[in-house]
Design goal:
The chain is of the alpha/beta class and 350 residues long. It has 2 domains: 270 residues, Alpha-Beta Barrel (TIM Barrel), CATH 3.20.20; 66 residues, Type Iii Antifreeze Protein Isoform Hplc 12 (Alpha-Beta Complex). The chain contains 12 helices and 13 strands.
Length: 350
Amino acid sequence: MNKEIQIDGRMISENAPAYIIAEMSANHLMSFDRAKEIIYRLKDTGADAVKLQTYTADTITIDCDNEEFQLHGGLWDGETLYTLYQKAYTPWEWQKELMEYANSLGLACFSSPFDLTAVDFMEEIGMPAYKVASYEINDIPMIRKIAATGKPVIISTGTAHLEDMERALQTCKQEGNENVILLKCTSAYPCPYEDMNLRTIPLMESTFDCMAGLSDHTLGSEVALGGIALGAKVIEKHVTIKRSDGGPDGAFSMEMEEFADMVRQIRNLEKALGKATFELTAKQEDARNGTRSLYVVKDMEAGEEFTAENVRSIRPGRGMHTMHYEEILGKKAVKALKKGTPLSWNVVKP
């Protein structure tokens, strides 16, 4: 899989800052103006992209109240799949304008399709990338159609067994598309911290020789930061204006101030992670001047022996290295030395 992928001019790579996606999902609450306001507020958060979802209740499921179509427990208790998606979908007629609006504010905009017609639609309006949602990782015909576009494909793995990931990646490869990123994800809303298993991120990367990231449904920013520390190159989080505004996904979404703070923390953490090296920075090299070294600590006459009484290892580090301490003892000074003189070989008789 490719280790450099570009979305709307922004490079995602092992050496680039993490690509941060703000998932709008259903948090527009069926208001086009609110959808635009979410995008407008994202422009100053440090997000790289806003993500939509492209489905209708009829393209993602059917209107049926059989037991297997009913939701029990959690945020959506009492709903059927159909009634939930009727409330949660993003009208397709909004999406081109929302994408163009995001682009005008410096944000990329793409979507998760949920059937073949959604892929056709996303191609018609020119979205630059595709996100495959966790529950769609087994929709091989759709993944094949997405991969055939040649555009970047980001795949969440929240419901995937190992063989599901292998099959999805193989399908992309068969279509000649290796611009694929896998996201560690746990499909729980919100997700308990103990279910995240973030150490899977580097395992995914090494197992599939691809870039890996994190689609995070936990509350707060700790898990996203942990993902960055473990090598995630993409972070995806749901965003809303205020959780108290409600909506199907509001309870586990970040408010704008929280999202901006998470991005700030991520960028600081990336700086701190730096590179794996034993080399010192310029500041560290300068700080070495404050380390211990050998100094004359009592006035000495010419010819006087160096002893534990007149030579010690002290700060700062301008004198002889302390490894020579035993070697110096018993030798004689070539000249008179004042207390506070850094020891050097040129004041020591051979």
